[in-house]
């Protein structure tokens, strides 16, 4: 039997190419056209910016010689980090130049690489997130009940 996590797909998905593309567009200073994403439902919208406090508290790290040796790149601008270069570390452990990451987090709250979400200052969105978790729990309970009755 497949594990719980396989079935419910709780692992972060593979890098979202569309999101990264957006991040690069931003990095290159082009105008972002987000109007197409501006639907009524958060499912269809780019989440709001990351909370300022959280962004301010993101740890700055020094790129280690081992990371530089491996050719670790900033996922936004694709430049390789140099040894001892300062990088901004997301909670998902991904490293970015702060000049690449900060404008992005000013637009939306998730890691451009893996979509790990940071808290936001938007009460409406935070409520939506809680709701989503509740809906998922509800679904799991229903699936569990269904499984208990029919197996
Ligand atoms: Zn960069
Ligand atoms: Zn990440």
TrEMBL record:
Any one annotated GO CC term: cytoplasm
Protein's recorded name: E3 ubiquitin-protein ligase RNF181
Similarity comment: Belongs to the RNF181 family.
CDD domains to which the protein is assigned, alphabetical: RING-H2_RNF181 (cd16669)
Signal sequence region: none
Upper taxonomic lineage: Eukaryota, Metazoa, Chordata, Craniata, Vertebrata
Catalytic activity from the UniProt record: S-ubiquitinyl-[E2 ubiquitin-conjugating enzyme]-L-cysteine + [acceptor protein]-L-lysine = [E2 ubiquitin-conjugating enzyme]-L-cysteine + N(6)-ubiquitinyl-[acceptor protein]-L-lysine
GO-annotated biological processes: protein ubiquitination
Stated role: E3 ubiquitin-protein ligase which accepts ubiquitin from an E2 ubiquitin-conjugating enzyme in the form of a thioester and then directly transfers the ubiquitin to targeted substrates. Catalyzes monoubiquitination of 26S proteasome subunit PSMC2/RPT1.
Source organism of this protein record: Alligator sinensis
Pathway as given in its UniProt record: Protein modification; protein ubiquitination
Top-level enzyme category: transferase
Keyword presence, Zinc-finger: yes
Gene Ontology MF terms: ubiquitin protein ligase activity; zinc ion binding
């Amino acid at each position: 039997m497949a594990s719980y996590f396989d079935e419910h797909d709780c692992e972060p998905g593979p890098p979202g190419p569309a999101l990264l593309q957006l991040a690069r567009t931003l990095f290159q200073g082009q105008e972002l056209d987000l109007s197409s994403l501006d639907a009524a439902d958060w499912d269809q919208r780019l989440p709001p910016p990351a909370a300022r406090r959280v962004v301010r508290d993101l740890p700055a790290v020094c790129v280690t010689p081992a990371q530089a040796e491996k050719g670790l790149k900033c996922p936004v601008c694709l430049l390789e980090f140099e040894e001892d270069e300062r990088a901004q570390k997301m909670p998902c452990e991904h490293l970015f130049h702060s000049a690449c990451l900060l404008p992005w987090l000013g637009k939306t709250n998730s890691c451009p690489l893996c979509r790990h979400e940071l808290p936001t200052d938007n009460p409406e969105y935070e409520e939506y997130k809680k709701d989503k978790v509740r809906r998922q729990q509800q679904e799991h309970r229903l699936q569990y009940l269904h499984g208990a009755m029919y197996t």
